[in-house]
Please model this.
Amino acid sequence: MHRTESPLFIGQQRRTVGSAVRGSLVAAVLALTVTVGPLSVVAAQDAADAPTRGITVIGYGQSSAPAETAVLQMLASQIEFGGPRPPDPGATPGAEEREAVVPMVDALVAAGVAEEDVEVVVSPVVGQFYGPGGPGVARVDVRIDGPTPERVRELVDAAIVGAAEEDLVLYQIGVGYGVSDCAPLERQAREAALADALARAELQAELMSMPLGQAVSSSDVPLSYSEAFAAFYGGFAPTQVACSPPAPVPTTGAPVSVPPYDPTDEAEVNVFAQVEVTYETGSAGPETDATPAA
Model:
């Protein structure tokens, strides 16, 4: 018996086959997308994480200007060795120490310092600090307008003579110079640091026979003044430096909070800057194809 299929049945079967084929194609495309998608993301991430070919250097800069003001700090200590004596019963704490440095203050006033520009600091921090002899008695601070090396030296000499009247010595002397506006000095120091970084990168590129490209990154390199001052103050390094951020290392109660006094220094404010700069290499543009100058 010959079986004849109706056109309606054949049409339905063809539509079923066509739908299956189209479904298979869509599934294949989706599978390819799922497979290739993550690979593309990984490839892009690898390209982003690939290290930049370049030269990294640290540039150093400094700027200076005459000081407009100064703070002179002088720590008076006992000559004879021995622990600090507690105050007498009923006595005002610190009164005896202030009385001991009166000749020192009088000598500074006689040298032309206004009384309101002299401050006597009495603190347990001062009393617990020992020099070659006995403990610290008090710190005498002097504010100076228009300081010069000669003027600072004159005041130090006057304080030494006044302290000697009470058998005291000046064990630590510090002076901090300042200006009213630090921004110009900070900018000059940073410009000098960037110029120094470029010079170092050009030399390094020349020695490596590599073309130097553009700068691609820059960051500040912090300065630790506490470490620099530790050679003089030991663990009691000061942190108050004009036109500079606070030192990142805390101190352990420094009785003198300004840099150490050097009688050979100029009365200047010095600002330092350090920057780390990375320059591209091997892919320089038309302006950087030439070999860097020596």
Notes: The chain has seven helices and seven strands. The CA atoms of residues 211 and 289 lie 6 Å apart. The first strand starts at residue 54 and ends at 66.
